[in-house]
Each structure stands twice: as C-alpha cells, then as structure tokens.
Amino acid sequence: MRQVEIDRIIEPMISGRATMDEVQLQDLADSMALVGLIHPIVLRPEGAMFEVVAGHRRFLAARKLGWEKIAATVWEESDAPWLAARLHENAFREDTTAADDALFVQDLYDKLGMDDEQVCRRVRRSAEWVADRIRLLRGDEEIFAAVRERTINFAVGRELNKISDEGFRRYYLGLATKNGYPVAVVADWV
Questions:
Q1: pTM reported for the whole predicted model
Q2: How far is the C-alpha of 184 from the C-alpha of 159, rounded, in Å?
Q3: Is 62's pLDDT higher than 60?
C-alpha cells in the first residue's frame, strides 16, 4: 500500500464497465472531496507506469478533483489475478437499497443526534429524499422488508404505503411481489 502519483497511473486496457455515468462520477468526486478516499484503488506495474486494476471510477474522480496522489495497493507479481479482480470489482458489488438508506438516515438522527438540515447535508440529498426514506422505514414493515430484499423497488413500496387499509395493502403487496408489477400499475391501484 502506498501513495502513487496520479500522472503515473493509466486507465485499464480492459475496462470492467462499458460506460460511466458522468453525473454519478461527479457525485463520487463530490463525496471524495467531502470525506476523502475510503477504499484505496488497486494497481499493477506497467513499465514505469501503473495500470488501474480496481477503482477506475475512484481514480477518475481523484483526477477530476486535481489530486496529485492517491492511496493504492500495488500488485507487484506479474501473475496476480488482476483480471479477475477487475471483474469482481464490478460484477459482485451490491448497491444499497432504499431500505438500507432509510436505516442509515435513521441512525444519523438517533445515534448522532442530527437534525433534518444536518442529515440532508451529510447524505448530500434533498429533504424530500430523506423524508421518503423515513416514511418507508415507518410504513408497513412487510413493504420495508420487500424493498430491503429487492422483491419490489422503492417506488412500488412508496405507492403501496399510501394504501391505508392494511388488508388491501398486503393484498397488493402480494400481487406486486409475485408478478413484478411496475410502479404505474401500483399507482393505479392506489
């Protein structure tokens, strides 16, 4: 593990991603500007340079921020499983769900004693985004579990929580989880 000069790093010859969303890349750069680099990138020697094995987006965000150096693990062995690492970096990453986000936001309130403004600033989201997650958390526990387990998405869960009658809400939750109805259909039920 060491600090490596950004200008000595080259992008991967074989990328694990076909495209990169510029807005999400900027979000990552904003996050790194705020809290720094949480996970070092992984590099392998390529002559006098280093090729990115894992952490391509973090590297691009650091470069965008004008950083001179970045924390990196450097694999010196030529036979290191760098292609497998590149694949696993992207293929087996699990994004958080809105339910995970809701629990995180609630912890900011409960464990750190933050107010609404502080929470919004910490998570870099709007007050409506935060309120939506809290409503999910305080809504029907089975809907919350379905969102957390990815059997329905957040938008479907948000619509289902608008149904005041528990019997109807659970009935429609069953339909949504079994048949994968899109949010437009669920909104019509509501």
A1: 0.59
A2: 9
A3: yes
Instruction: Give the whole-angstrom CA distance, residue 123 versus residue 135.
Output: 17
- Can you say how many angstroms the Cα of residue 181 is from the centroid of all Cα atoms in its chain? 24
Q: Where are the extended beta strands (E) located within the chain?
A: 2-5, 9-10, 41-46, 49-54, 69-74
If you average pLDDT over every residue of the chain, what do you get? 87
Q: Which pLDDT belongs to residue 81?
A: 65
| 111 vs 109: CA distance, rounded Å | 6
Query: Distance between CA 97 and CA 91 in Å, rounded?
Result: 17
Identity of the amino acid at 103: L
5-33: average pLDDT: 83
What Å distances lie between residue 88 and 9, 20, 135, 166, 189, CA to CA? 21, 17, 34, 42, 40
- 149-159 as b/e, with b when 16 or more CB fall inside 10 Å? eeebbbbbbbb
With a pLDDT cut of 90, the percent of the chain lying above it is 56
Measured in residues, the chain has a length of 190
**Are the CB atoms for 15 and 52 separated by under 8 Å?**
no
What span, in angstroms and rounded, lies between the C-alpha atoms of 170 and 67?
51
